[in-house]
Amino acid sequence: MYLCLMSNEIQLLQHVNSSIQEDTFVRLTLSKPIDSKDMLKKVIISLATIKRQSQLSFVYRHKTNDVTKNQQVQDGLSTIEDLLNNKFEIANLFTTASDYAYERSGAKSRLKQKEATFKSAPNRGHDKEKRHLIQGVEYLQLLGVLDKNGRVLKDKGDKFKQINKFVEVIESLLKNHEMVSNKDSIKVVDMGSGKGYLTFALYDYLTNQLKLDASVSGVEVRQDLIDKCNSIAKEVGFDKLQFELGYIGDYQLNKTNILIALHACDTATDDAIAKGMAANAELIICAPCCHKQIRKSMTESDGLDSLLQHGILKERQAEIVTDAIRALIMEANGYKTKVFEFISTEHTGKNLMIVGQRKKQATDPQKYLGEIDKLKKQFGIPQHYLESLV
Ligand SMILES: C[S@@+](CC[C@H](N)C(=O)[O-])C[C@H]1O[C@@H](n2cnc3c(N)ncnc32)[C@H](O)[C@@H]1O
User: Is the CB of 192 under 6 A from ligand 1?
Assistant: First the structure.
């Protein structure tokens, strides 16, 4: 058995080596750590030409961050052998001639040859720099996301991914948008800005990446967070980023181009949407948090008992109904809506995003109002809180 294990490993390493020599190597991935608690979850190895030399580029995928290291091919092959022996149970080698799937379980191992997934070798130039939409490191350090060396802090990996993903969503929404092409000065309000992670990143993106004249305000009920965020904004020289103490429902929202409300609690999301629509915002972006209002008022009505009889199912149903009605109310009020998951559930459960883009032409609200009524009747809901606001 041991011999078999060795021979499969050795064969795999030989395939890696020969595919590098023959320039058919595409990628090797090592996964399924032997120790399931290991923070290192996966290693992705590719071939890159760095300073005119072929090198193996290792991306070490940890639970919270990625680390890239490049090695000369011979050293890299030893590292692969070591990782295969001591760290991982699965290896997948992709070459333009064949794919190889290696798997070990205890003392048993197997190596399968398969048809090649990739028909040609990738460009061997050094991997392009990861696209960074946010440029500032200093504010992320002061906000406690990065350490003094610019690395993501151990418990902030999810937050960092969320910040980047959020900015990517903003990028796609603003692509070809008049606000950007006209280079207008724009006003953005973040309702329930909390610790300001996303507010800072948005300001950074709008001003440093898109070179817009953007004023961004965070509105928040907690004075300690307001003070901290204002002090960081001052320290990093974000002149037009400010945080104000305020309750969303009472906030006097003047002309605003973009309104965001991410994870504002329960009906605070509705307050924010209503304010955004009243201010005629071009874009309203919200990620709802909890959904208590509808959950409490939902009653088991005919045919739906089985959907609502278990707490968790009722909760999920309440989320869906709450957000579906929110989107319909926005549509009825002249916004084209999209509802999607903006980050994988592995990073946060609160990952639904509702985006409303103001329509150029008025639409007949009747169709949407009819849909809202149908849903309310079906779920025995007297009123959605957002209806009472618009
Ligand atoms: C879960 S945090 C989210 C923070 C930030 N938007 C984010 O996604 O990282 C929600 C924040 O909204 C604030 N908040 C909740 N209801 C609010 C309201 N009605 N008015 C102003 N702030 C509110 C809370 O104090 C909290 O800081």
Answer: yes
